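Notebook entry, structure prediction.
Reason for the run: the old model in the group folder had no record of what sequence produced it. Starting over properly, with the input documented here first.
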Amino acid sequence: MDTTHKIFKFLFSTALFCLVFTALSSAQQKKQQNSEYKQLQEKLKTDTFSFGLLIQGLADIQPERSAGHNGFKASKGRFKISGIFDGRFGYNLQATMLKTPSVLDANVYYKPTANLSIKGGVFKSPFTHEYNTGAGSILFVNRSAVVNQLGTKRQVGVQIDGFTPNGLLRYTAGVFNGSNYGNNKNDDDYLQYMGRLEGYLNNNGKNRAKVGVSVAVEQKDVPSAYGNIPSTFEGDQKLMTSYFSITQGKILLDGEFIYSWLESPAAQNYNPYGYYATVGYYVAPKGRLLLRWDSFTGDNLTGDSESLIAGFNYYPSSFAKVKLNYILPTDQSVEYSTFLVAMQISF
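New structure, fully documented this time:
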């Protein structure tokens, strides 16, 4: 079967899937959905104990594949337990049932004031905008190439996180081991330092806007993978990111740029960098079209990539979401395009 037939076959299957799913979800009255969601919130979410769940299935199809296989898989299966006592002492525990290590987050925090918290344990380090967006809330099925390559991900450490009295500025600073996720101890005698400033320009109803900048600095004497950068690199590592996210009515604009300075003891310098830019529009109350340009330059440490990603997100209820993605790699032929369909349930 040639590439064209493969593409049309997949598009037909996807359209049929969406039609059936939409018909089933439309049979439920909105009032009943809101009532069920409210009842679940009352039973599972209190100040001292809150339980959440995310389950996601994924269809991954390519007419011609350079790696992997076409098919289906359970891409997300995780739960989260959290709570706070006396409005001051809180905890978070998140685990996955599909990967090793299974514990994603395990941390405690203290809030001396309403606008300030001190956290310690395993959690998402305060660097990239997209990675700090929850797995169930990201715009596309997968995060961008630059975030996967250069993002600092989850780490063990401590941080201080606060807001100014007017709530328009958020500041975060942390000290971390700098080790890969899953390693609960430091690889050397050096630590990784991060700082982040985030400003909120407008938060009125459906109109929201925020901009931010983050930096991360680390010295490594032991070769270790940096995001997906090869594990042979060691030396002085600096990262900076700037980002924005703007929602005005039905329109969404979202983007991020990450640049790195990697200096090895052999006086070899590398500057991997990348960015993504996204525009979105609600074509219906429950459906949003998305378009993203995704670019990453590895600067001889790892491969480059550029792609155009078209997406459609459908929200049939407060619990469910369907994501359709078409990924066109601009540095390869159309036969290597990827079709992704994700269906998730979360609360």
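Summary: Residues 3-26 form the longest helix (24 residues).
The old model has been moved to the deprecated folder.
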